[in-house]
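Chapter summary example: a protein plus KG4.
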Amino acid sequence: MAIIILAIESSCDDTSVAVVRDGYVLSNLVANQDIHMAYGGVVPELASRAHQVNIVPVTRQAMLEAGIKTEDVNAVAYTRGPGLLGSLLVGTSFAKGFALAQNVPLIEVNHLQAHVMAHFILEKDQENRIPAFPFLCLLVSGGHTRIIIMKNHLEMEVIGNTIDDAAGEAFDKCGKVMGFPYPAGPLIDSMAAQGDKNAFRFAKPFVKGLDFSFSGLKTSFLYFLRDRIKEDPSFIENNKADLCASLQNVIVNILVAKMAKASAQTGINEIGIAGGVSANSGLRIGMKEEAGKRKWNLFIPEFRYTTDNAAMIGITGYYKYLRGEFSGHNVVPLARF
Ligand code: KG4
Ligand code: ZN
């Protein structure tokens, strides 16, 4: 019998619902919330309200596209955390309601684990290339920057972490200084394509081992701009593409260098990137170049599986289902996991 998982993701500002059958994604819908753009960041209260509005229609559409009915669902997987509590509550409550009504098990999913598990999503009518274990993955998002060893589908070890800001935050905060709306990462990425990545040099922080630090970069970027603006008030406007390219270059160099170190230390050549920042074209190119030099077997996710999506929750839920890892209705969402 096929196993059909209904997956719900509502940890931040995207409401996403997916249907996964035997590890294959049948549908994966994401409703983005443009409302936060004007505020320079996600406003938690507005995010929860938008999830409330979106969750039912997005679920209905995801089931319609997958060609399934409510009674076909074998289990409901949902993001338990980490994330914004109000946002998580909407997805959690909906998942519980659905599971109770259909009398099917509930599966809680760790959002970060799911980002890495996105590499195991299978697509119909496609050659599916998936990593072998142990798999060394760089998880880079708006809230996290971690190096993870996956020992099997559900067991992972964190061997590197940021000691302050996440890589996505470095993109978003430096972008904000240049006047970009939130999230600035994708805008910096596209603007960088027209710039010279060697135009400006920003110092790389020295952080021991496999850890990262990005708060110093943000400060030095801010001070650099402040000094230049004193001489030329239109400095940002006149140098936007070069600023974006140079900033992206230093962030990418920091990330790629740590992955090279992690691979050398662990002896793992099965390498991947995951999370919102893994959509970055500079990072994708940088990792491919390094993979060529070091004979890595490299896994770069499809764009639709880099940022928040429910397909990654569904695939994690599928492997938990196979192991019988269900959760009770007394399980509460966790802002920090
Ligand atoms: O994984 P994600 O969707 O949400 C979190 O769990 O945080 O990641 C969002 C982050 C934001 O910081 C956004 O600016 C960044 O991913 N991002 C990018 C790109 N696309 C998204 N950063 C750089 N280049 C991109 N192309
Ligand atoms: Zn995420």
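Key point: The longest strand covers residues 24-32.
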